[in-house]
Design goal:
Structural class: alpha+beta
CATH architecture of the largest domain: 3-Layer(aba) Sandwich
Distance between the termini: 19 Å
Largest sheet: 8 strands, antiparallel
Number of strands: 18
Number of helices: 15
Number of domains: 3
Radius of gyration: 22 Å
CATH topology of the largest domain: Beta-lactamase
Shape: globular
């Protein structure tokens, strides 16, 4: 079972002292304390006034219950890496902090990412024990109002656990079911990657093609001539993100993929393509534009016909947010400034894109996983190409493939992708040992991710 001991962070080096100070502020769950730390040591931006960043971090603190340090790694005077565990669940994370060598040793880099349960901390259970533990954990988190959603665990394509918890609509007291549609965030990237590889398989597109080949009139020709399809699929193109002040200003105007290109298309590269990996929602949006150019139909029509239909996905789509409410659709709830839940309506894009934001159900995502693994969407060669890790993501054993993440956990290889934004969180994980896990939630991250990691850490390796 997971150890209950909690190694303390030493304070012998500048990096250790800064990390200990951040952890104390984070674990306090107090906004003023967190703001004071960031203003003194690590402003979110030059103005030190990124209230959205502070609120996101505060929501993470309250959602996780804070972190315990489980495994501090060998530090240097100016850097520290630590394996953390949420206090309110058994989700692990890896934190990396670097500080300036000169006084007052301000933080120059800080990253924290969810990771699979470290092998030495994994529980060992039978399948029946693991599923019983999952049910108990879901009941516990639902009672604590930290989970609301649906879960399917399948073995060799057949569900062995399928349950829903919490409310799809709190105002109307409508319960979540296995047919409830949840917003899935970046999980759409899997559909976009499959569609792209279908065009590659059909020899209508090549992974080595520059963006300019499909989009000869793209506004920034330097970007278009140097960024390839491979770069876009692996987040190595330097194409930047979508979200930020510009998005907030134009959110209700961005109704098509072309609208995003009009807004961001003249933007310069963030770095030389291939130099590093930096997660890029805009890169996957551009893949949608490429799919439209090559297939001569809208991205949404293409994936409906060539991904959803052959997979048997009847409840997955990307509706316009200002149109009539879709049937069985959940309301997304995000933490407000006073720790209560409020609808995420005012944060949503007017429509999903090829980078994320569509709706789906746990049943449909299992159907997608089954279609993928049985080569109904791509042949065996291109399915392997799609899901084999290409670039390191930082944490050991985690690589990005093409719209899928490849992880090695407990000696088992798994592939999939998550999605998260205020009021939405989801995860699809397909493992070589035959287990598939689908979790969707209508609450802030890491509501679904922590459940996925909980059961993944307990299922038997074979």
């Amino acid at each position: 079972m997971t150890s209950t001991s909690t190694p303390q962070v030493a304070t012998d080096t500048p990096a250790q002292r800064q990390f200990a100070a951040w952890l104390t502020a984070f674990n306090s769950g107090d906004r003023d304390t967190l703001v004071a730390y960031h203003q003194q040591h690590f402003p979110y931006d030059v103005a030190s006034n990124d209230v959205h960043g502070i609120d996101r971090e505060l929501a993470l603190s309250r959602g996780t219950g804070g972190f315990e340090v489980k495994k501090p790694e060998t530090p240097t005077p100016t850097s520290i890496v630590a394996i953390l565990k949420e206090r309110s669940s058994e989700q692990f994370a890896r934190a990396v902090m670097e500080v300036d060598a000169a006084e007052p040793h301000r933080v120059v880099r800080f990253e924290i990412h969810p990771i699979p349960t470290p092998d030495e901390l994994r529980p060992h259970m039978t399948e029946a024990e693991a599923l019983a533990a999952l049910r108990a954990e879901l009941e516990k988190q639902t009672a604590a109002d930290t989970f609301s959603g649906a879960v399917i665990v399948a073995k060799n394509g057949t569900p062995i656990f399928a349950e829903a918890y919490g409310l799809a609509d709190r105002a109307k007291q409508i319960k979540n079911t296995l047919d409830t549609r949840f917003r899935i965030g970046s999980m759409n990237k899997m559909f976009t990657a499959v569609a792209t590889l279908q065009l590659v398989q059909a020899k209508k597109l090549a992974l080595t093609d520059a963006l300019a080949k499909a989009l000869p009139t793209y506004p920034n020709q330097t970007l278009a001539k140097n960024v390839t399809i491979h770069h876009l699929l692996t987040h190595t193109g330097g194409t930047g993100d979508i979200f930020g002040p510009e998005f907030d200003q134009h959110r209700l105007e961005l109704r098509t993929l072309a609208d995003y290109v009009k807004l961001y298309g003249a933007r310069d590269l963030a770095f030389e393509p291939g130099a590093k990996m930096e997660y890029s929602n805009y890169g996957f949006l551009l893949l949608g534009v490429v799919i439209e150019a090559v297939s001569k139909q809208s991205y949404f029509d293409y994936v409906a016909k060539h991904v959803f239909e052959p997979a048997g996905m009847t409840s997955t789509s990307s509706p316009m947010e200002d149109k009539a409410t879709e049937p069985n659709r959940s309301v997304g709830y995000m933490r407000g400034p006073n720790a209560g839940w409020k609808p995420n309506t005012d944060t949503l894009p007017i429509r999903a894109t090829s980078a994320g934001g569509g709706d789906s159900t746990v049943k449909d995502l299992l159907a997608f996983a089954n279609a993928l693994t049985s080569n109904k969407l791509l042949d065996a060669e291109h399915t392997k190409l799609l899901t084999t890790g290409k670039v390191d993501m930082g944490p050991p054993g985690v690589k990005y493939a093409y719209g899928f993440m490849e992880t090695i956990q407990g000696g088992q290889r798994c592939v999939g992708h998550g999605g998260g934004a205020p009021g939405m969180n989801g995860q699809l994980t397909i493992c070589d040992n035959g287990y598939t896990i689908v979790v969707l939630a209508n609450l802030d991250p890491p509501a679904a991710g922590r459940i996925e990691q909980f059961i993944l850490a307990r299922l038997p390796a074979k």
